[in-house]
Crp/Fnr family transcriptional regulator (Alkalibacter rhizosphaerae), 468 residues
Amino acid sequence: MSETCKSCGHSLCARRVPIFSHLDGEQLETVVSLIRRKHFDKRETLFFEGGVLQGLMIINRGKAKAYRHTADGKEQILHLFFPGDFFGEKSLFVDKKTEYNVAAIEPVDLCMISRKDFQRLMKDYPHINQKIMEELVSRIDHLESMIENLGAKSVDARIQSLLLELGQKALKQEKLEDGMEFVLPLSREGLANYIGVTRETVSRKLSALQEEGIIEMTGNKKIRVLDVDRLERT
Amino acid sequence: MSETCKSCGHSLCARRVPIFSHLDGEQLETVVSLIRRKHFDKRETLFFEGGVLQGLMIINRGKAKAYRHTADGKEQILHLFFPGDFFGEKSLFVDKKTEYNVAAIEPVDLCMISRKDFQRLMKDYPHINQKIMEELVSRIDHLESMIENLGAKSVDARIQSLLLELGQKALKQEKLEDGMEFVLPLSREGLANYIGVTRETVSRKLSALQEEGIIEMTGNKKIRVLDVDRLERT
DNA sequence: CGCGGTCTTGATGGTTATCAAGAAACGTGG
DNA sequence: CCACGTTTCTTGATAACCATCAAGACCGCG
């Protein structure tokens, strides 16, 4: 966990984040000057449940999961954060505890902007406010879809939604050649904790999809979706 | 579905809504002048999935549910709206379809403020902006809790959370005497569609809780929680 | 008071969690 | 680069739990 991230260029950090994408060069410089960076190894915890985040945290590189533990020890993943995603937005508006843990599922470079600095940014560049709102709204959309999946869909359908979601996210990150192929960001257990089943069930369902010729797995993490239509026909 | 709601006083409508609670009398008058009212009978649909809401919709009286139907016809309830709650906030920030239906589960008086008018309000009274943000954040919190319930908790635990949630909401609405007693806002089927089980299961679990002496049911809708601690020990 | 809708309860079956063991993948150090 | 040890993954057997199907009871409303 080094204090600074040497590998990421300054401007890159802010430029690839959607909420700053409309700023011009000079404005971006201002933003960049406010950013502190921090590196986390895989499996390191970025933040613990119950703590108060002191600002906006932006994933610059790597991926992270936000999750909770139930009373009986089960893990439920609430969000997957990819490069460009942020968390800690709650602390910008209300003085409340964060109710989930965030852990790196890949080595992560984190960009941090303090609450105070970010509030000034929002005042100086009001459009950022709008961007944050949009992000909150789309996060609500996503959470609502998760609820529909968990509450009303069969396990088969949940696995299919999961593969489509991860495939699309991967597609957005690195431009892919045709025939959706991507690397799973989570272990079987991670996938299971995202869709509310056990790792054994994930294993069995993926094997079944492979036998039906809908997907093809190479190694444990690489997946190629052969029949996207079949997945979408949920 | 009459065009105006005669029974609700003008100022009441805006005053009881948290997002306007900080405004003074004159400002409230302005808000009130922008409001259009509409009444819906029980079971009427306030809005259909796929439509674009044209402004902010505030429940002034009654209760409503927001829900989706899965491909195979199952209903999943996403939100319960009580008096003072609002929906349609998405339309204020982005031009996107609403992805759920909203239906009255009691006769509802609805206050509507058009997108354009509300955006002017936000400009004139910037604090409203902050209030909306706070509401979005707390809605995210609630959705995350639902996900934890649906994905990682046993059905018993989900029923218990449900009763606590409904009890607390009822407590907030009408001040209750001690010994949490309240009227269920939903049928067994409604409860079931909220926590992702079948109505038969809800029936059985409630009966079990009664036999254990944790709750007491009178009629189909009235519930008294005798042992709140046992419910909280999830 | 009687009817329609809602609710409860029982019997059964399907689906997934759990327990268990072996196989594959991965990382490490020689 | 290979061998080893560890972690992760797969697969099977079993059991628990809930959905489903079905019938009768209760409730609430006209």
Summary: Residues 154-155, 197-198, 200-201, 204, 219-220 of chain B lie near DNA strand D (CB under 10 Å from a C1').
